[in-house]
């Protein structure tokens, strides 16, 4: 039996837990309702997932608040907390194949990516934040000698995390790690079509020793479970990753409830700027290809725009074509596949609607561009040239394997175009002159800027954006500040 067939059989035979996880156990939705979770790969029914609603969110938040108020986790010895989180990370590693399969079946991602990227990265994030627990110091402020002023980080209480479907396991770990390390309790509302990995992560957390009620998961739809969580009066913070439209609702819900803190990581239209003195166009083309076609372009910081200074486009396109000759597009359970289909018919149809725009303003199709229908969710890698900077193709987040190319007269024009969107999540610049590249990078309005590379991420560096890409940061030590509040305690020594 081939490895591909073996994974396909395991996917069909999978019987995942699909109930809500509240107070350390799997429970049905209060209403008894479920929703069908279908595989993007072949349409088979994976499971019937508990359809959480307001009553389920209320139960989860009440449980999380009780655990927080009791101090069971919040006040535990930091070294004991660290031991539990490190054991949790170990269990994530031991269950790597199961977690990867859950992720792949839910999202349609290539099994090789889920196995070699998603599962180990999630484990590493939990491990890294576990290590920070007994190494994070508070401060003594430089006040006059007759006083002592302490500045301490205080956990916020109950954190609500709403997670998208494109990288559910990784992004869930980005919220869990700093929130739990700081002593908070958390209620996670995963995307309705990718709930399975979060449920398993919660089970493993309790198995590692995390007290019941610290980590709860309530699957459900955004308009019901998501809104109830964001509006809850006992939720101190909402951490949301997703679309700009829903992000605006999160801010509205916070304002209309208890003025809870809101951390948003939203969309992007990331620019990859290729200046005319870029000396390694082959490397640039390979990196550009991976930056947009990895995960079929379903990445918030995907490098979906290339802005090319005069004189290098023809050679760059030739290298991009060569890259695609060896880029494997196909079955998600084939370990050699590098890009599979989109997550759903809804997303496929959204991408198709953008492909309909090609040519309306003089755009030229270089490769790809074919729409698909029916059960076919695979859209081929696409490159569109001669795109106008202010067109919909250049301004709106497509969230698919579609790369648009925009001509720039010179460096000044390239910078203007790169910064000419509402988004500010990520960008890159390619130049053989490091001084020129660095000066250019400093002018780019983006939360992450790469020079002569793209999508190099690590837990030690913060991730987030400016403008319509949201505010707040995931990852790094800075995220600990986002999941805590600073308290000043002033002591009069006179």
Q: Segments where pLDDT lies below 50 for 5+ residues?
A: none
CATH topology of the largest domain: Aldehyde Dehydrogenase, Chain A, domain 1
Name of the CATH class of the largest domain: Alpha Beta
CATH architecture of the largest domain: 3-Layer(aba) Sandwich
What do we call the CATH homologous superfamily of the largest domain? Aldehyde Dehydrogenase, Chain A, domain 1
For the report, how would you describe the main beta sheet? 7 strands, mixed
Please report the total strand number as a whole number: 21
* Neighbour order of strands in the largest sheet: 14-15-16-13-12-18-19
Beta-strand content estimate: 15-25%
| Approximate shape | globular
Secondary structural class: alpha/beta
Count the helices. How many? 16
Helix content: 25-40%
The span between the termini is: 80 Å
- The gyration radius over C-alpha positions equals 23 Å
What's the overall average pLDDT, rounded? 97
Number of domains: 2
Q: What is the topology?
A:
Layout: H1 3-13, E1 20-22, E2 25-27, E3 34-38, E4 45-50, H2 54-70, H3 78-94, H4 96-107, H5 111-132, E5 139-141, E6 147-155, E7 158-162, H6 168-181, E8 185-189, H7 196-208, E9 215-217, H8 222-231, E10 237-241, H9 244-256, E11 261-265, E12 271-274, H10 281-293, E13 305-309, H11 313-326, H12 345-355, E14 364-367, E15 382-385, H13 392-395, E16 402-408, H14 411-418, E17 423-424, E18 426-430, H15 434-443, E19 448-451, E20 466-467, H16 478-482, E21 484-492
Parallel strand pairs: 7-8, 7-10, 8-9, 10-11, 12-13, 12-18, 13-16, 15-16, 18-19
Antiparallel strand pairs: 1-2, 3-4, 5-6, 6-21, 14-15, 17-20
Helix pairs in contact: 2-8, 3-5, 3-7, 4-5, 4-7, 5-6, 10-11
């Amino acid at each position: 039996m081939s490895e591909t067939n073996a994974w396909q059989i395991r996917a069909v035979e999978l019987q995942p837990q699909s109930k809500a996880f509240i107070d350390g156990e799997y429970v049905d939705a209060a209403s008894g309702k479920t929703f069908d979770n279908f595989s993007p790969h072949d349409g088979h029914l994976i499971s019937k997932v508990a359809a959480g609603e307001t009553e389920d969110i209320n139960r989860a938040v009440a449980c999380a608040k009780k655990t927080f108020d009791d101090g069971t986790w919040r006040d535990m010895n930091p070294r004991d907390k660290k031991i539990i989180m490190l054991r949790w990370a170990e269990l994530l590693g031991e269950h790597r194949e199961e977690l990867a399969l859950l992720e792949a079946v839910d999202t349609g991602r290539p099994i090789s990516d889920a196995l070699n990227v998603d599962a180990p990265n999630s484990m590493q994030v939990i491990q890294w934040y576990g290590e920070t627990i007994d190494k994070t110091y508070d401060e003594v402020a430089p006040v006059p000698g007759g006083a002592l002023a302490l500045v301490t980080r205080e956990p916020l209480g109950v954190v609500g995390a709403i997670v998208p479907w494109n990288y559910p396991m990784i992004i869930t770990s980005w919220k869990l790690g700093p929130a739990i390390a700081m002593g908070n309790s958390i209620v996670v509302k995963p995307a309705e079509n990718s709930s399975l990995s979060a449920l398993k992560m919660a089970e493993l957390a309790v198995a590692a020793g995390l007290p019941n009620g610290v980590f709860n998961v309530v699957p459900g739809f955004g308009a019901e479970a998501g809104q109830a969580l964001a509006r809850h009066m006992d939720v101190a913070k909402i951490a949301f990753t997703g679309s700009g439209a829903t992000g605006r609702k999160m801010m509205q819900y916070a304002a209309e409830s208890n003025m809870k803190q809101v951390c948003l990581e939203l969309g992007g239209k990331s620019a990859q700027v290729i200046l005319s003195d870029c000396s390694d166009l082959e490397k640039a083309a390979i990196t550009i290809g991976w930056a947009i076609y990895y995960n079929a372009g379903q990445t918030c910081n995907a490098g979906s725009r290339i802005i090319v200074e005069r004189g290098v486009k023809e050679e760059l396109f030739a290298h991009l074509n060569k890259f695609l000759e060896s880029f494997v597009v196909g079955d998600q359970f084939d370990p050699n596949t590098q890009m599979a289909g989109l997550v759903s018919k809804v997303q496929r149809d959204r991408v198709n609607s953008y492909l309909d725009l090609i040519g309306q303003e003089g755009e030229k199709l270089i490769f790809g561009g074919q729409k698909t229908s029916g059960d076919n969710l695979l859209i081929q890698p696409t490159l569109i040239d001669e795109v106008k900077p202010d067109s919909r193709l250049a301004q709106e987040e497509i969230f698919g394997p579609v790369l648009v190319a925009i001509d720039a007269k010179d460096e000044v024009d390239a910078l203007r175009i790169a910064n000419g969107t509402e988004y500010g999540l990520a960008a890159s610049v390619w130049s053989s002159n490091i001084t020129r590249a660095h000066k250019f990078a400093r002018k780019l309005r983006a939360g992450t800027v790469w020079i002569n590379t793209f999508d190099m991420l690590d837990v030690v560096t913060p991730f987030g954006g400016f403008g319509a890409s949201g505010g707040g940061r995931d990852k790094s030590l800075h995220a600990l500040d986002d999941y805590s509040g600073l308290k000043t305690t002033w002591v009069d020594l006179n």
